[in-house]
Amino acid sequence: MILKGKVHCFGDDVDTDAIIPARHMTTSEPDELAEHCMEDAEPEFVRKVNRGDLIVAGKNFGCGSSREHAPIAIQAAGVSCVIAGSFARIFYRNAINIGLPILECEKAVREVQSGDELEVDPVAGSIRNLTRNQEYQAIPFPPFMQNIIEKGGLINYVKERMKQQCQE
Amino acid sequence: MGMTITEKILAHHADREQVEPGELVNCRVDIVLGNDVTTPVAIREFEKIGVERVFDAERVVIVPDHFTPNKDINSAEQARRVREFARQYGIINYFEVGRMGIEHCLLPQEGLVVPGDLIIGADSHTCTYGALGAFATGVGSTDMAAAMATGEAWFKVPETIKFVYYGEMPRWVGGKDLILHTIGDIGVDGARYMAMEFEGEAIRNLSMDNRFTMANMAIEAGGKNGIFQPDEKTLDYVKDRARRDYDFYQSDSDACYHEVREYDVSQLEPQVAFPHLPENVRPVSEAEGIYIDQVVIGSCTNGRLEDLEMAASILRNKKVHRELRVIVIPGTQEIYLEALRRGLIEVFVEAGAVVSTPTCGPCLGGHMGILARGEKALATTNRNFVGRMGHPESEVYLASPAVAAASAVLGRIAVPWEVVS
User: Fold this and answer.
1) Is the Cβ pair A60, B188 closer than 8 Å?
2) Which residues on A lie below 8 Å from B64 (Cβ)?
3) pLDDT, mean of residues A45-55
4) How confident is the model at residue A51 (pLDDT cuts 50, 70, 90)?
5) Backbone dihedral region of B98: left (phi > 0), alpha (psi from -120 to 50 degrees) or beta?
6) Model confidence over B360-402: pLDDT tens digits?
7) Whole-number Å distance between alpha carbons of A54 and A145
8) Cβ distance of B387 and A21 shorter than 8 Å
9) Do A158 and B188 touch (CB under 8 A)?
10) Can you give chain A as a three-state secondary structure string?
11) Taking CA atoms, what residue in B is nearest to A145?
12) Over the stretch B322-347, which tens digit does the pLDDT of each residue have?
């Protein structure tokens, strides 16, 4: 899987209230959540984002609430991957669980700018900046998480595991 | 090598003698929790797994507390979905409006979470139960769904930072001030992925309600869990509530810590977190004089009986400032009733505050006290992100119930000793 799209940059400590404000959490429908993605951080984001685009942000992306509505909104808005300096713990877990590709790479975050075009292999963790002709390598996932990612998320992983246990 | 209390609880639930930080372990969970916002997503994912029942109908707890009593048709539909799921799967510990409370006030009160437990909840403030000497951490809805089906969850064993508080705490300083001061010191990602273990002389003297406040805000420093080693105070709290057997774990003296940080609390002032991050903490003396439009006293951080008693001790025979609104929210129906019996509700109403049924409501900008553009609130809640309580151009200051009550009287951020001697 190779992801390709334009970059939308954000700063440090982007919290889940900025990604999807609680006032919109009276629904869990991905398309409805997508309409308000990043609303309090960048009100124009939903109009500017194209399918396949990437979010590049600073440290501690997704801090705050446990709301899975946050990665769901990002995924449903068409964002193919989030690259950050670091992720808040629950957001990290949620993104892997729902199959939203994420990568940690401080160097890329320092050098990539809004509007750059990136090509990303989320499994290998390789990032190519096509606009600036630069390459970066993200921190690889441990094999266990890689397994969840390859199965498309936690639910598929659990289904398979429960089936195996039944057969045993 | 010795283990920390966090490592011991994870090892026990993974049927292991020993675990080390960085290891990935699969653990049995004692309680799986969800609310009216996170459970609908969990139900959708749970149904995809295709199992006929939850792993244990007594160990799944569902508390509709965020948008309840329902604020609009959409939130009512979400609550109905959750209610129907609870009926269909025989979830005994589903708490309906009128019997419910804010989840993290309710579960310890009902003895559903006990020392030594491993608890996951689809709510970030699940870390509150660490006050009991349990490992408790927030997860998303998909983790909740998987755990409802399997009774298990995977964890990376976290490193632990030990926070030691020594010295005698000054009057008007409490658990909220200790944790705000700590977050101000290490930042909103200072304990990212890590366990926060709280101890020291000041902690041993700290009441359970104040410990819940501290553990509750571990997530605001990025922590995976916040935890206290159980003692006599823990025992007093749980012995008549616990619905299950419990285990008191202690960290070994040769346990390994990522870092140990020490704080002398004897000179600590009440603390205030300025907008728009919980790490923007300053002593209250630097916040005095900031005019505010609303005060909120409540939430899973500070909605317990001691919090209400503290606020009432300042508001007794006083009036809320005429240019200010004050909303008091007892954390559970039991706390509400006890506050009523002790005359605290009378104090609040006579002072000119409103008293609400238990709800998360304004803390997350849900309902019951949304801020307009440009308005400022001082709240005893846990987050002050942009737009957290309403309009993106509104502002939230975080502080203790004592500072909140004093500010309510004076209409500006104030110290308690300005109002009472």
Assistant:
1) yes
2) none
3) 98
4) very high
5) left
6) 999 999 999 999 999 999 999 999 999 999 999 999 999 999 9
7) 21
8) yes
9) no
10) CCEEEEEEECCCCCEHHHHCCHHHCCCCCHHHHHCCCCCCCCCCHHHHCCCCCEEEECCCECECCCCCHHHHHHHHCCCCEEEECCECHHHHHHHHHHCCCEEECHHHHHHCCCCCEEEEECCCCEEEECCCCEEEECCCCCHHHHHHHHCCCHHHHHHHHHHHHHHC
11) B24
12) 999 999 999 999 999 999 999 999 99
H helix count then E strand count, chain B: 14, 18
Residue B161, pLDDT score = 98
> A114 in contact with B at a CB cutoff of 8 Å?
no
Chosen from B193, B225, B388 to mutate, greatest number of chain A CBs within 10 A: B388
Query: Tokens 């991957």 belong to which residue?
Result: A81
CB of A34 within 8 Å of a chain B CB? The answer is: no
Class of domain B272-414 as given by CATH = alpha beta
* A78 contact B CB<8A: no
Q: Where are the domains of chain B?
A: 5-241+257-262, 272-414
Q: Which two tokens stand for residue B205?
A: 């003297």
Percentage above 70 pLDDT, chain B: 100
Question: Can you tell me the mean pLDDT for A56-68?
Answer: 97
Residues of A in contact with B189 (CB under 8 A): 13, 59-60, 63, 86, 88
A147 touches chain B (CB under 8 A): no
Residue B107 confidence class, pLDDT cut points 50, 70, 90 = very high
E strands in B95-180: 118-121, 135-138, 152-156, 160-166
Tens digits of residue pLDDT in B38-53: 999 999 999 999 999 9
Q: How many CB atoms lie within 10 A of CB A46?
A: 16
Pairing of strands B271-273, B281-283: antiparallel
Closest CA to B297 of B243, B236, B231, B353: B353
Please give the DSSP secondary-structure letter assigned to residue B369.
S
Query: Any idea what the Cα angle at residue B102 is, between residues B98 and B103, rounded to 5°?
Result: 110
The superfamily in CATH containing domain B5-241+257-262 is: Aconitase, domain 3 (3.30.499.10)
Q: What contacts A89, CB < 8 A, 6 or more positions away? A: B192, B193, B222, B224
Please tell me whether the interface predicted TM-score (ipTM) of this complex is above 0.90: yes
Bridge partners (DSSP) listed for residue A84: A57, A104
Percent of chain A past pLDDT 90, that is, above it, reads 86
The answer to whether the B5-241+257-262 and B272-414 domains have the same CATH topology is yes
CB contacts under 8 A, A 56-75 vs B, are 59-60, 63-69, 71-72
Chain B CB contacts of A18 under 8 Å are: 385-387
- The answer to whether the CB of B293 falls within 8 A of the CB of B320 is no
CB contact under 8 A, A66 and B364: no
Q: Is the pTM of this model over 0.90?
A: yes
Please tell me the distance from the alpha carbon of residue A24 to that of residue A168, in angstroms, as a whole number. 44
Q: Taking the CA of residue A22 as centre, how many other CA atoms within 13 Å lie in the half-sphere pointing to its CB?
A: 28
Residue B294 pLDDT greater than 90, yes or no: yes
Chain B hits for A63, Cβ within 8 Å: 188-189, 222
For residue A168, pLDDT beyond 90: no
